[in-house]
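Per reviewer request, we include the raw input and output of the structure prediction for the construct analysed in the revised manuscript.
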Amino acid sequence: MEFKIYKQCKRCVMDTSDPYITFDEHGYCNHCSEYLLKTKQHIYQGDVSDAALQKIVEKIKRKGKGKKYDCILGISGGIDSCYAAYICKQLGIRVLAVHMDNGWNSEAAVKNIKYVVSKLGIDYESYVLDWEEFKDLQLSFLKASVPEAETPTDIAIPAALHKIAAKYNVKYIISGGNYATEGILPKSWHYNAKDVTYIKAIQKQFGTKKLKKFPDFSYKKEFYYKFIRGIRIVYILNYVPFSKESAMKTLEQELDWKYYGGKHYESKYTGFLQSYILPKKFNLDYRLATFSTQICAGSMTREQALEELKKLPYNPDTVEQEKIYWSKKFGITLDELNKILELPPKNHTDYPNDQKLLEWIYNMYRWLQMKKKELL
């Protein structure tokens, strides 16, 4: 499905770079309309959220009784996860901070993690991926020329967190993911990271190694951890007043945290991928989703967003430097990297996948959850 005419939302800044975007009679898109509709369910609502948070914290502490930790918390060194750690400490939750190390951490992110866990006095564990396997899988996705070049990391993070939660018999994983700053993100921009058939097909076609140590997180694994091990994910920032600006100030003033230069630039891979490769190759500018969320949340005006969007999403002076870093990291020449990045764009439908099966499974699960609520 493609739009022949470019169109942009009149309330936020989402546009037809999402092929499935729709507009109402006012020119407002489905993304911001859905965001505003769901706000009360997912964003801090004063006393209601306070009461809900109190109940959740009580559950977390009750399930953690007699154990070393109440919960596992995924930490990247970025704003959201570090602030989630800060909130947990304020609430008296015993946290084990876990970082999934895929070999691409920026120096700033490493320092941030160190400062945050030491200042808060919480335990820390690193889950280190096998680099040779992981870089081979990342290269496979780049060679496949799909926008889902982040899939290897996206699936390894929940796999690592659930694996460690099960190891310590912990029933809760705290995530820094939140609706206030991440509520808008088109599904068309990123295919399901839990499709193991898709991952294996790409690795089989483009990879040079078998994935023996890489942790997967298929729907079967997810259901095992959720229903057999009873592990739940809590998005704690949805229950507290949260804005990037105020969170950054708190982290800087109290935990010696330092800003790393841009959204997701705590990773040397993700930062360059989202700021340069995705906009240049796939016309996917993640700033559209970020700014649109901020507009709906009231932390940015549409005029400010439009002014920012006039600027390049990347620094042209550092592109070559970042490409050189990538090529050295992958163990290939700069020329080889450029040839990979210049391959014609493709999408997940060009490779074997379980999209229909996964859609049926998750739709059935959501239907059952809805029916369960209706009976309560």
